[in-house]
Amino acid sequence: RSYSTIPKDPNRKGKMYIHSGYRDTDTVTIHIPEGYVIEEIPADVHLKEEFGEFEMVTKAVDAKTLVVSTNLTMHQGTYRPETFTALYNFKKIVKQQFNQKIVIKPQ
Questions:
Q1: How far is CA 84 from CA 24, 36, 88, 107, in A?
Q2: Dist CA 28 CA 97 (whole Å)
Q3: For residue 95, which phi and psi values (nearest 5 degrees)?
Q4: How far is CA 21 from CA 13, 26, 45, 58, 78, in A?
Q5: Measuring CA to CA, which residue among 99, 5, 97 is closest to residue 46?
Q6: How far is the CA of 58 from the CAs of 41, 44, 69, 98, in angstroms?
Q7: Cβ-contact 51, 90 below 8 angstroms
Q8: pLDDT digits (tens, 9 = 90+) for 27-85
Q9: Cα–Cα distance between 30 and 68 in angstroms, integer?
Q10: What DSSP string runs through 8-59?
Q11: pLDDT digits 0-9 by tens, 7-30
Q12: What is the spatial distance between Cα 77 and Cα 19, in angstroms, rounded to a whole number?
């Protein structure tokens, strides 16, 4: 999945506008091949800011099946320039989370 960030602007003076709020929800089931085991899964993430929310949860259903669920909600609205750094960091964390790896190894 590709997820874009926004340019860093520590001196932002103008308000920010999110013209169209949205919710993006995905669930992916991963089946681990025979002869492999799960070595590492990403930690769950829960973020909540005034302009949006993000959640990513990875659960082992059993020894051979993982389910990864993501929920990203961006709220329509006008936001003060002071919230720009929080928005920048939020989008940066979301992008990092979408790039997390699940590690499997031979049994």
A1: 22, 44, 6, 47
A2: 14
A3: -60, -45
A4: 22, 17, 21, 25, 11
A5: 97
A6: 7, 6, 6, 12
A7: yes
A8: 999 999 999 999 999 999 999 999 999 999 999 999 899 999 999 999 999 999 989 88
A9: 8
A10: --TT--S-EEE-S-EEEEEEEEEEPPTTEEEEE-PPPEEEEETTEEEEEEEE
A11: 777 777 888 888 999 999 999 999
A12: 7
> What does the block give as tokens for 107?
């049994």
pTM over 0.70: yes
Output the six-digit token pair for 30. Answer: 């991963």
Token digits of residue 79: 């936001």
Structure tokens at 6: 């926004």
